[in-house]
Every structure is written in structure tokens, then in C-alpha cells.
Specification:
The chain folds into three domains: 195 residues, P-loop containing nucleotide triphosphate hydrolases (Rossmann fold, 3-Layer(aba) Sandwich); 110 residues, OB fold (Dihydrolipoamide Acetyltransferase, E2P) (Beta Barrel), CATH 2.40.50; 84 residues, Helicase, Ruva Protein, domain 3. Helices cover 35% and strands 24% of the residues. The chain has 15 helices and 17 strands. Strands 5, 6, 7, 8, 9, 10, 11 and 12 form an eight-stranded mixed sheet that branches. The chain is extended and about 95 Å long. 30% of the residues are buried.
């Protein structure tokens, strides 16, 4: 019989437009390196973003907002994602697009508030009393069933726990015995039992039994140190939106009707302001007691010009509240009409009173050498082999059209190269796909030249 190693079924991340970005690419003094962490050029914008990251880390930025403004394809979303990478996975980052607020199921303001709450984290530190150790004995003690009949019921369970320092015998409630059975606890397993709630967690098999079987799918853990009865600090990270959802959904019973009722409900339900206020009260109480700390995250709203005047007014109020995240807007519009108004023209399509509150970071178009570096990065990320002169031809196309168009030509060019039997993309392949597809400028030119042939 042949034994093969089974490959892990871990989910692979699809390659998106910004998979290559790992951070802002600054040195220890906060000065941007020309090409680092997946970002190229945009030195002044990256340096400004670095200062913003420092402000967020020192909790001096909550309730303020930032605007990334620049022409399309100049790396605004890339910088926002780089800020998220710099902050690490412990700081909540919630990306959304301006058009997302126009949901058919719930109000615009509800969508915004939901995303606001998603971007605020709460780190809860609890000191729990636990009994931890290797199970040396597990004996359920049975008595006559008080309701009569022939069956016997478990009155209590005797469990022996052993650590490196000593042993203890505990007498536990029958409900904990059910938890022990659910976790499939046996003698020789390392478990911990919470003293207040009676929750049981099986950590694995004690490593003294590691040589018990030749082949074993079990995870072995060392014998716990210290006493059996100890205090343990548990840190839990949740967002305010998680708390809202947990309290908004009434927990039904386990009968078939309540399960059916939950299935029949619409997917989205609006969370009332009253509930949110109650949750804020509890959160503030926890913060005052020192049990929890607030972690203001980042809410990134791309295409902010898509929001309308009502939403902007709501944003004002949300930014001024005591519990608010850092908001990063991005837009590629110049002077344009504010959505939802008849005649108000404003820079970036944002009302002037909101623009006043924003720190604005400008992004500039890339030059040809920067385009070349970015395209090289993208080719490496997508695992595409390309010749140097083909890369130069692609950068030339990017300089005449846009970076996005040039990056999109990479995959079709690699497929063309493979169809020709080659492994690397050469200049003829780039030219071939460039003639097959149109960029925005070429398309506009054709429309102008042949305007009589198209419908008005």
C-alpha cells in the first residue's frame, strides 16, 4: 500500500490588484525608500501616510479624517492598504466603496454606521480562574433517578488533574460532565476548566503518551506548569459591530419552529440607535473599570464622491461622536457637482465644511521608470516571465494610456506567449494584445472619428 502525503487544503489568496503591497516602505526615520514593501515612488504621499500611522498608533487621530486625492491609477487605494498593513492585524481595517451605501434593504446611514462600528475594535482582558492539568482520573458517580424508573443519573463527577507542581481532585457538577463528554475528554488529556462558567476546553493529549501509537493524528501538549488552580489572563478582540449583531439577534430555542423562523428572516436587519447606545454604555463601563480598551481602527471609503449630501451630513455627526474610527477617503474627481444637489459644485465632490476637517494627501502620476518598476512587481506577483524589452514596451504603453491598462495586458500577453509555445513574454506578444484591446483614450478617439456611425 502506497502512503502519500496529503497537501494542506488552506485557502489560497487570489491575486488582486494590490496583493503585492506589504507596507508603506519607510526606513526607521520615516523616510520613504524609492521602491520598498511593494510601493514605488509617491514619496511625499507615503511619508505623510507614515506620520498618520504614527498618530494612529499613539491614539491621537481618532475622529479625524484623511483624504487621498489624485488622478486615477496613482496608488490611492494602495496607500490606504499599506496603512492597514503597517498598523498590523490587531487594528481593525474596514474597506468600503462609496456606492455600497445605496443598499435596497437598509438605509444609507445604517450602512455607514455599520461600517463605522466594524472599524472600531474592543480589546477585552479578563482574568479567569481556571483548573488546568492532565486528567489522571475521570469517575462519574451515579445515584438512583429521583424521578423514579430504572435508569440512574450522574450526581457528580470526580476528576483528578495533574500538573508539574502537584495534583488535585475535584468534585464537579453533572452539567460539566456533559461538557467533558462533548469534548471527548479521556484520561491522559490536558484540559482546562473555567471556575466561574464551568466551560471545558481540551488542549490536546499529554506528551508523556506521545510514544503510545506509531501513527497518531493527535496533537501533543506538554504537562502544564504551576499549580492546578491558577489565574489566567484571556485577551479577546471584538468589533463594536460584532457586539451589535450579537445583541440584535434574539437567540431562539432549538425547536424546529425557531430554527425555521431564523431561516425565514431577511438577511439584513437594521440595528436601532437605542441598542447601540446601550452597548456604548456597557463598553464605556468596561473601559472605566479597566476590563477593556478601545482600539480605533480605520474605515476606508473609496470613491467618496459617490456619497450624497445627506450621507456627508451624517458623516459629520459620526466623526464628532466620542467613539469614532479614523476615516480615510479616496477620490479621483476634480471640481464636480455634489451628489444629491442641483447646483453645488465643490472640489472632489465633497462639501466644503467637510473638506475643512480633512488632512489631504495628494498622489501624483507615475513617470516611465516608476511604471516599469510597478509592472515588474506585478509580473513577479502574478508569476509571469517577461523579457526586459517587452517590459519597456509595456511601460511605454502605460505612459501613453494608463497604468491600469498596462497591468491588465500582462495576463493576456502571457497567454499569447504560451499559445506561441514560448515561456516568456516578448515585445511582439505585447504588440499583439495591444492591437486586440483598446484603452480609454483610443476608444474615445475612435468615437470622435466615427461619431456619425454611433447612436447619439
Amino acid at each position: 500500500m502506497k502512503i502519500e502525503e496529503v497537501k494542506s487544503t488552506a485557502k489560497t489568496q487570489r491575486i488582486s490588484a494590490h496583493s503585492h503591497i506589504k507596507g508603506l516602505g519607510l526606513d526607521e526615520n520615516g523616510v520613504p525608500i524609492q521602491m520598498a514593501a511593494g510601493l514605488v515612488g509617491q514619496e511625499s504621499a507615503r511619508e505623510a501616510a507614515g506620520i498618520v500611522v504614527d498618530m494612529i498608533r499613539s491614539k491621537k487621530m481618532a475622529g479625524r479624517a484623511l483624504l487621498l486625492a489624485g488622478p486615477p491609477g496613482t496608488g490611492k487605494t494602495a496607500i490606504a492598504l499599506a496603512i492597514a498593513q503597517e498598523l498590523g492585524n490587531k487594528v481593525p481595517f474596514c474597506p468600503m466603496v462609496g456606492s455600497e451605501v445605496y443598499s435596497t434593504e437598509i438605509k444609507k446611514t445604517e450602512v455607514l454606521m455599520e461600517n463605522f462600528r466594524r472599524a472600531i475594535g474592543l480589546r477585552i482582558r479578563e482574568t479567569k480562574e481556571v483548573f488546568e492539568g492532565e486528567v489522571t482520573e475521570l469517575t462519574p458517580v451515579e445515584t438512583e433517578n429521583p424521578a423514579g424508573g430504572y435508569g440512574k443519573t450522574v450526581s457528580h463527577v470526580i476528576i483528578g488533574l495533574k500538573t508539574a507542581k502537584g495534583t488535585k481532585q475535584l468534585k464537579l457538577d453533572p452539567t460539566i460532565y456533559e461538557s467533558l463528554q462533548k469534548e471527548k475528554v479521556e484520561v491522559g488529556d490536558v484540559i482546562y476548566i473555567e471556575a466561574n462558567s464551568g466551560a471545558v476546553k481540551r488542549q490536546g493529549r499529554s506528551d508523556t503518551f506521545a510514544t503510545e501509537f506509531d501513527l497518531e493524528a493527535e496533537e501533543y501538549v506538554p504537562l502544564p506548569k504551576g499549580d492546578v488552580h491558577k489565574k489566567k489572563e484571556v485577551v479577546q478582540d471584538v468589533t463594536l459591530h460584532d457586539l451589535d449583531c450579537a445583541n440584535a439577534r434574539p437567540q431562539g430555542g432549538h425547536d424546529i419552529m425557531s430554527v425555521m423562523g431564523q431561516l425565514m428572516k431577511p438577511k439584513k436587519t437594521e440595528i436601532t440607535d437605542k441598542l447601540r447606545k446601550e452597548i456604548n454604555k456597557i463598553v464605556n463601563k468596561y473601559i472605566d473599570q479597566g476590563i477593556a480598551e478601545l482600539v480605533p481602527g480605520v474605515l476606508f471609503i473609496d470613491e467618496v464622491h459617490m456619497l450624497d449630501i445627506e450621507t456627508f451630513t451624517y458623516l459629520h455627526r459620526a466623526l464628532e461622536s466620542a467613539i469614532a474610527p479614523i476615516v480615510i477617503f479616496a477620490t479621483n474627481r476634480g471640481r464636480c457637482q455634489i451628489r444629491g444637489t442641483e447646483d453645488i459644485i465643490s472640489p472632489h465632490g465633497i462639501p466644503l465644511d467637510l473638506l475643512d476637517r480633512l488632512l489631504i494627501i495628494r498622489t501624483l502620476p507615475y513617470n516611465k521608470s516608476e511604471l516599469l518598476q510597478i509592472l515588474k512587481l506585478r509580473a513577479t506577483t502574478e508569476g509571469i516571465a517577461i523579457e526586459e524589452d517587452a517590459l519597456a514596451a509595456l511601460a511605454e504603453i502605460g505612459a501613453n494610456s494608463t497604468l491600469r491598462y498596462a497591468a491588465q495586458l500582462l495576463t493576456p500577453a502571457s497567454l499569447t506567449a504560451r499559445a506561441d509555445g514560448g515561456q516568456r513574454i516578448s515585445p511582439p506578444h505585447i504588440q499583439a494584445v495591444h492591437t486586440l484591446f483598446l484603452d480609454a483614450k483610443s476608444s474615445a478617439r475612435i468615437l470622435t472619428q466615427h461619431s456619425d456611425k454611433y447612436m447619439k
